[in-house]
């Protein structure tokens, strides 16, 4: 594990990239709030709101080329994905203000939802390096996956209402009709054939909202947890929900977890995948790898 602190001779240029729609929360007052609690002796702060999907990545790229050393993703895992992809590319430092619906990576890193406390973490400038994943060359930082989770994220992204309740409602509508598929997996050279409801590749332990798919996952072990949710009778949905909320999914016979660093997955058809909850379409064959300790993040 590598922990560093900046020795500050001059002020650090910091950019807050704010997603106005994440978490279903209005954020017009956020810049004033940040301005009040950010340490002005350490930082020159700038703020910008995103205007469309992909804009956070463009803004982070621009900022990296303009002397910003620390870039803060103010949103959920989708916003972090866009910002962190560029932070990783330009070897900058990522900060997080958890303003999303699920906030999976922020929860895993113990960054509080209370913005004042989250800002106190930024003020301390304590940096750690974490693993990052690649899903057919698309970076991810929390979770990527296919099957039901990918199907749901594709539908959720078209929904105007964000937030936890909308997600749960949609999930319950869709779970009844979703059909499990057969996948061929190669994990660090070993072959597996599995029929699955969903498969997640977990860098952190959770989807968000403290729903744990991979309770023993670590962002520092150079490994991903391949979490296979087996096909199940709808009557067992409460059991599956219970073990995920309790953080005991690995003990359930409905879930199989295999750790690995080089994974190839072959499915029956092209279709939906998700990276950090954002929907994408990919082909039948997907390669998943991990870059150990590759991203610098501000942590408590
Ligand atoms: N101005 C905007 N209008 C519409 N979509 C936007 C805008 N700015 C960013 N986005 C998109 O919003 C999406 C959702 O963002 P994000 O994932 O951060 O929030 P969330 O889904 O509420 O939280 P979480 O992923 O933690 O559950 C991302 O795909 C992002 O590209």
From TrEMBL:
GO terms for cellular component: plasma membrane. Pfam families: DAGK_cat, YegS_C. Its cofactor is Mg(2+). InterPro entries: ATP-NAD_kinase_N (IPR017438), Diacylglycerol/lipid_kinase (IPR005218), Diacylglycerol_kinase_cat_dom (IPR001206), Lipid_Phosphate_FormReg (IPR050187), NAD/diacylglycerol_kinase_sf (IPR016064), YegS/DAGK_C (IPR045540). Keywords: ATP-binding, Kinase, Lipid biosynthesis, Lipid metabolism, Magnesium, Metal-binding, Nucleotide-binding, Phospholipid biosynthesis, Phospholipid metabolism, Transferase. Residues 9-138 form the DAGKc domain. Signal peptide: none annotated. SUPFAM superfamilies: NAD kinase/diacylglycerol kinase-like. GO terms for biological process: phospholipid biosynthetic process. One of its GO terms (molecular function) is metal ion binding. PANTHER family: LIPID KINASE YEGS, SPHINGOSINE KINASE. This is Diacylglycerol kinase family lipid kinase. It comes from Pedobacter endophyticus. The lineage of its organism: Bacteria, Pseudomonadati, Bacteroidota, Sphingobacteriia, Sphingobacteriales.
């Amino acid at each position: 594990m590598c922990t560093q602190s900046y020795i500050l001779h001059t002020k650090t240029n910091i950019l807050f990239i704010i997603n106005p729609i994440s978490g279903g929360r209005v954020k017009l007052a956020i810049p004033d709030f940040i301005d009040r609690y950010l340490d002005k002796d350490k930082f020159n702060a700038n703020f910008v709101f995103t205007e469309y999907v992909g804009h956070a990545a463009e803004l982070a790229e621009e900022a990296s080329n303009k002397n910003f050393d620390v870039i803060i993703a103010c949103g959920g895992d989708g916003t972090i994905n866009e910002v962190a992809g560029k932070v990783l590319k330009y070897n900058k430092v990522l900060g997080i203000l958890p303003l999303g619906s699920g906030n999976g990576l922020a929860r895993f890193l113990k960054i509080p939802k209370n913005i004042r406390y989250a800002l106190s973490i930024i003020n301390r400038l304590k940096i750690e390096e974490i693993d990052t994943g690649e899903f057919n060359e698309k970076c991810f930082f929390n979770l990527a996956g296919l099957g039901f989770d990918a199907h749901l994220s594709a539908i959720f992204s078209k929904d105007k209402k964000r937030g936890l309740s909308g997600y749960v409602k949609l999930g319950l509508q869709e779970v009844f009709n979703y059909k499990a598929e057969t996948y061929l997996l190669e994990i660090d050279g070993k072959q597996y054939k599995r029929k699955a409801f969903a498969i997640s590749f977990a860098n952190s332990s959770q989807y968000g909202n403290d729903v744990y798919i991979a309770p023993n996952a670590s962002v520092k072990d150079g490994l991903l947890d391949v979490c296979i949710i087996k096909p199940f009778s709808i009557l067992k949905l409460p059991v599956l929900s219970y073990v995920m909320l309790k953080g005991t999914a690995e003990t359930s016979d409905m879930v199989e977890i295999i750790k690995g660093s080089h994974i190839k997955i072959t499915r029956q058809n092209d279709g939906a995948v998700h990276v950090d909850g954002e929907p994408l379409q990919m082909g039948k064959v997907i390669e998943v790898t991990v870059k150990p300790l590759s991203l610098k993040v501000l942590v408590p």
